[in-house]
Amino acid sequence: MTETETDHAAFEADFSDLYEKVLPPRRATEVKTHLEGCERCRAEYAKFESAMESVSGLHRMSAPQDFKVQLETTIHRRSAGRFFGRRAFGDRVPFELLAIVTIVAVAALIVFARYWR
Amino acid sequence: MSIRERLLLRRLRDRDERAFREMVEEYQHRVFNLLYRMIGTREEAEDLAQEVFVTVFKSIDQFRGESKFSTWLYRVAANHCKNRIKYLSRRHDRDTGVLDDATERAAVAQGGEPIGAGHIKGPDRALEGVELDRMVQKAIAELDEDHRLVVVLRDIEELSYEEICSITGLPEGTVKSRLHRARLALKEKLAKYV
Lengths: 117, 194
Description:
The complex is a heterodimer.
Chain A: H1 5-12, H2 15-19, H3 25-37, H4 39-56, H5 67-78, H6 95-116
Helix pairs in contact in A: 3-4
Chain B: H1 3-13, H2 17-39, H3 42-58, H4 69-90, H5 101-109, H6 123-142, H7 145-156, H8 161-168, H9 172-190
């Protein structure tokens, strides 16, 4: 039985799953059997495997050695040094505490102003 | 998320400078590699990597912890990539995929190790490896950005499909379909070199 383009395309559609070894066993057997008997698909799969090995074998590029320093400089510059929280009164004052103190102070002022009248 | 990640996240939200350094130390090379493989030039990748970490730190409070921290970080990086690629194409920047000799030779000289198999030994073989890397990077750069992203995330960064779906916001079927088309395209582009 001669194989049509559709047949070859159907097997090619499974190349990724075959390469990743996630094809169901029956289908994996079908594809491997076909590759053994079809020179064209076997050649295409060999090209596919080589391409995948080349991609996964790419050198891993590293960030420059002074990247962290450059980044910290950028952040400090853009935030005028505020971003990491300036130390105040010997330690960073939590925003929640500042908010509570402010509310209490305003409430006290309002009460005092009413009493003063 | 692991306990370690949760603790790091809490310290980052407290704007702990040491936590920030730890986070950058841990992820800088991965982020840079992703950006480099997407953008194709070292200068742009360095600039973009800075922007990615600045964004991460500024918007750390928006991360709800529904995914791994690294997944969220990659998502930020991928979004920055897309915006930068659009900007570069609007600027008609044609230098989108060619790895310059100096950069790659420097990477090899620094002992940059290939991620997978195919370690090249000896000076002549090292040059062959450099040339092959150049061809592969060129082929990747010729893919459209959606296909390029899934190839970089899966075949270079070796992320799981679940992570890729979380990063891209795409269903698994779409990710696999794009990946397969991208791989077939790379097969054709690299056929004469490998």
